[in-house]
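Record type: monomer structure entry
Structure origin: computed from sequence
Chain ID: A
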Amino acid sequence: MLKLAIYGKGGIGKSTITSNLAAAFAMLGKKVIQIGCDPKADSTINLLGGEPLMPVMNYMREKDEDPETLEDISRIGFGNILCIETGGPTPGLGCAGRGIIATFQLLEDLELFEREKPDVVLYDVLGDVVCGGFAAPIREGYAEKVLIVTSGEKMALYAANNINSAVKNFEDRSYAKVLGLILNHRNVENETEKVQAFAAERGLKVVGQVPRSNDINYWEDQGKTVIEGDPDSEVSRVFFDLANMLLEQE
């Protein structure tokens, strides 16, 4: 099983990249689970035709009880991808990271992985603050590899550095390791050179580059990934190549 956590600064394109990777894996014949670990709970929306999924934390607040079945907190999206969103607390009340911890414990109780037997599990994780909750996918052994999404922008690289440092803190415990960076282009001056230099200084690789593409925005406006909307496009090939590389390494 390929267990991959995708981290990055808020707004850097993690969810776009994660959902397109999930769709690419699915089209390659793999059974995929995508778990959104962000209070905004929008990780899986483009796998679900633009329809938001009720997050686990919302379900528990509104029903005032734990879900009894996996079907209560998940939906099947494009390519038979099982979609789950952790969500977070009521804004201003409580710690968002604790929502991730509570959701992961619930998924264990529901025997998610034993029941579904996925080939690929993707965690889409906010990385501005790598506190205990947001570090749960790597700290608790749910994910084995980490991809960090960045651009050449200063704050994106700052967040990427914090994430890399956080993962390194767990290296001696045989937890997840950083596989590399994904450069999500924002048309920053000398962007490729900046990110490659950043990676080289930290002994990392740039494992994929997503070009700035109107195709992505076009299909997201229709509630789809570009993989679903136009699998033969140039930008779709980027995601297929990355998915194939990850499978070959696994």
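Annotation 1: The mean pLDDT is 91.
Annotation 2: The first helix runs from residue 14 to 27.
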